[in-house]
Design a protein that fits this description.
Two copies of one chain form a homodimer. By secondary structure, chain A is mainly alpha-helical. Chain A contains six helices and three strands. Chain A is 53% helix and 8% strand.
DNA sequence: TTCGGTACTTACCAAAAGGTGCATACTTGT
DNA sequence: ACAAGTATGCACCTTTTGGTAAGTACCGAA
């Protein structure tokens, strides 16, 4: 019903093509998205970008609702992907902190426009999602 | 710009928390990512951004390896989210095409840097992923 | 001594996401 | 008549992902 009409952006600017290349990925966009795919990864990047080196526990408390298992897992993947650096201070009560690598920083930069887009259009997105949540729940009852 | 920037530009980490949010989202980035979450959505957006209005069948063939069920489903969600417009020409052999709304176009623009990042770093990403695929399938190594 | 905090690990599960294949209703080409 | 193409819908199933709760090894405080 609600046709989201926006500021008369009549001539949509052209989008450059997504250059396909190396094995496994259809294009750069594909590669990027696989790297940040994970329920909490963007948030992790977000916090590290904002607050710099952060201890595990802090991160854990900052990102609410994440479980240890998944947080650790995603941190490990980010580390394996070279986006995050893990520093073990080898102290007696364990002390480890995580920070962004230069690669991680560059990715964070590339995320800026997405963040801005979301901020700008959050109202619309939010509304639509709320509606979807409604009929989604009624459409299917718990299996069995 | 009064807009909170996602990754702090560089030197200082003074950027405050995520933008105060509407129901459901922790920040703009979160909102954006939920909208493009779906195995083929980014590719759909990119394709439509480049080629303009496209018939269902064409899309289906362009995005290889996607199944009808999922493609339709993601198109419906994109449409519900106001990013894509579905046009049914009501012709006898069905003819429907999909195009980006202005909102969709703006999102596609925001994806450009991600695409660039991926293209630029595809070598690293690709290598790391290949390695992960190897030990992920077999048993896990003792903690190194 | 037991409690709580550190940074994890593991086994087991539930839910979500995606894939397969068949069905539809109608038309054009062979 | 029959296959093929059009844009979908639906039932069923597998894979992927994330969550829960417990355990580990170590230390200091109560």
């Amino acid at each position: 019903m609600s046709e989201p009409t926006f500021p008369p952006t009549q001539t949509p600017p052209p989008v450059q093509s997504c250059t396909p290349t190396l094995p496994g990925f259809t294009c750069g966009l594909d590669a990027t998205l696989r790297v940040i795919a994970g329920k909490w990864k963007p948030l992790i990047l977000y916090f590290l970008a904002q607050d710099g080196p952060t201890r595990y526990g802090e991160l854990r408390r900052a990102i609410r609702d994440v479980s240890d298992k998944v947080l650790i897992q995603q941190l490990k993947e980010l580390e394996a992907d070279g986006l995050v650096k893990r520093t073990d201070h080898k102290e007696v009560p364990p002390r480890v902190d995580y920070s962004l690598t230069p690669l991680g920083h560059s990715l964070a930069q590339a995320l800026v426009p997405l963040c801005a887009w979301g901020t700008e259009h959050m109202a619309e997105v939010s509304r639509v999602f709320a509606e979807r949540a409604t009929w989604t729940r009624r459409g299917r009852q718990p299996t069995v």
